[in-house]
Specification:
By secondary structure, the chain is of the alpha/beta class. It is built from 5 helices and 7 strands, in the order ββαβαβαβαβαβ.
């Protein structure tokens, strides 16, 4: 009779060493995380922007989702025309005082959580148009999370703004006490 050593434990039965939340355990293929991190990751990587192109910045916003720049790589591919299906409002261009109530109404119709990206100098501070007919910054109407400078900003800058917004969304606490919304400036 030949004695054989006992068989090794399969990887699934080995105890996983304790690690910090959100870390890989390479040996067993187990990911440990918290619910806040998992929900934050899912929200950050599945942004559905709403179109709100008002001027020349809208052309750059369209270019951002084209084949050359491919916004789909960052999880924001599905542009929605309905505010009830969107969670990111991209305000691209100058906002007139006549259009401001419409912008606010669309923002109010968006489900929570919702974010706003102000694209271009005109949306951020009315740019070179300092007159009575234009709102001097979209932040007077809705709370802005990310400002993207430029006249008009390049598609790369807008994608950088979306990446910064994703980092902000991922860092937000989904459950428990909410932190104050502080705007982020892209391209800085």
């Amino acid at each position: 009779m030949i004695l054989q050593p006992p068989p090794e434990q399969p990887d699934a039965l080995r105890p996983v060493p304790s690690r910090q939340a959100g870390q890989f355990s390479g040996e067993s293929g187990v990911v440990l995380t918290t619910v806040n991190r998992a929900v934050g990751w899912a929200r950050a990587n599945s942004i559905w922007p709403m179109l709100f192109g008002l001027a020349c910045c809208a052309i750059e916003m369209m270019a951002m989702s084209s084949v050359k720049f491919d916004l789909a790589r960052f999880g924001a591919e599905v542009f929605r025309a309905s505010p009830r299906q969107s969670d990111l409002m991209i305000v691209a261009g100058r906002l007139s005082k006549k259009m401001a109530p419409v912008l606010r109404q669309l923002y109010d119709q968006m489900p929570e959580p919702k974010w706003v990206l102000s694209m271009g100098a005109c949306a951020s501070c009315s740019g070179v148009y300092n007159n009575y007919a234009l709102v001097q910054g979209v932040d007077r109407i809705v709370p802005v999370d990310v400002y993207v400078p430029g006249c008009p900003p390049r598609p790369e800058s807008v994608i950088d703004g979306i990446i910064k917004l994703q980092a902000k969304i991922e860092a937000d606490r989904q459950f428990g006490r909410k932190d104050e919304r502080a705007p982020v400036f892209a391209g800085a």
